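[stage:ingest] chain + small molecule (tetrahydrodeoxyuridine)
[stage:ingest] validated
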Amino acid sequence: MKNKTYSFTYSEFEQENELSVEDQKLLAMAKESAKTSYAPYSGYHVGAALRLDNGEIIKGSNQENVAYPNGLCAERVAAFYASSNYPGIAFETIAVTAQSDDFEINDPVTPCGSCRQVLSEYENKAEKPIRIIMQGASGKIILVNSVQNLLPFTFNESKLKNL
Ligand code: THU
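[stage:predict] done
[stage:export] tokens:
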């Protein structure tokens, strides 16, 4: 038996102005997007902004439903819209933020497992890492350089095809 370690390097920023101008803009657009969230059940408004390789920025927000499982996270709303409307254009960076009706969110919002899996699909398809910028309504910002880092031991096509 061997014990093995998984680790990865990511960046942490105290405030927005430590990011590049492009990333600051993307994060600001994610915050704008949170305002379009439809979250009457959780009161948790998530905004995502996805920058494509062609420079286009796609916004998405979480959309809930009275039949709870039918709702969709902000990240997947943005990713599916992007892939539908810009097929074949790689995702470059996604910024994610959230605001709550009930409490202050000062810690970064990290994508749920389903969103990680979906983003991983597009990362593998394009063979290009997707950067992920995460922040709460305010507070410190985390930047991760690939979805793979957030989803180790990913189920991917090589396993499906026994490659
Ligand atoms: N949510 C997102 O939109 N993205 C995430 O990464 C985590 C959760 C949404 C789903 C639901 O509408 C609300 O936040 C509370 O879970």
